[in-house]
Amino acid sequence: MKSSKMIVGNSSFNARDRLAVLNLLNSYGYFFNENKLEEFSDLFDTSAVIHLGEGSHKTTMNLSQWITYISNLQQFFKQQQIQPRHVVSATRFDSQTSDQMSGQSYLQLFTTKYNITSLVTTGIYEFTAIQKEDNWKLNRWVIKLDSWLG
Fold first, then answer.
1. pLDDT tens track for 7-65
2. Contact call for residues 131 and 98 (beta carbons, < 8 A)
3. Cα dist. 95→6, 17, 26, 34, 83 in Å?
4. Which of 8, 75, 91, 102 is the S-S candidate for 128 at Cβ 3.0 to 4.6 Å?
């Protein structure tokens, strides 16, 4: 049986699927920044599980709870006239099969208010994306922040 574990530098993967998942990850930041909640929610599979934080600050949410959380966050930014800039970078893949991929990306969250830009936090996303009906969707999303926002 062939292992789905990736070897760094190995080029024997489906580049088309990999590009689709990279676009999915980058769209996460873009739709978050642009307050496009419907498009943002479409990035996730209906069975997605989201883990935010670690240790005593860890919260687990289903997709409906996650979208409510993001909607409230976006409303707060709008009310406070804050422009978020959510950057997803340095994506790496741990495994890839024809219908599932997993890996990590770095995250940086900046905000701008009154022409002053500030770094809010950094961290790591751990993700699993699944393919259903020729579409890749996020199914597991783990957010590990370097500094807690609460």
1. 677 777 899 999 999 999 999 999 999 999 999 999 999 999 999 987 777 899 999 99
2. yes
3. 5, 12, 19, 30, 35
4. 102
CA distance 52 to 50: 6
DSSP collapsed to 3 states, the chain:
CCCCECCCCCCCCCHHHHHHHHHHHHHHHHHHHCCCHHHHHCCEEEEEEEEECCHHHCEEEEHHHHHHHHHHHHHHHHHCCCEEEEEEEEEEEEEECCCEEEEEEEEEEEEEECCEEEEEEEEEEEEEEEEECCEEEEEEEEEEECCCCC
Report all structural domains of the chain as residue ranges with CATH numbers, in order of start.
15-145 (3.10.450.50)
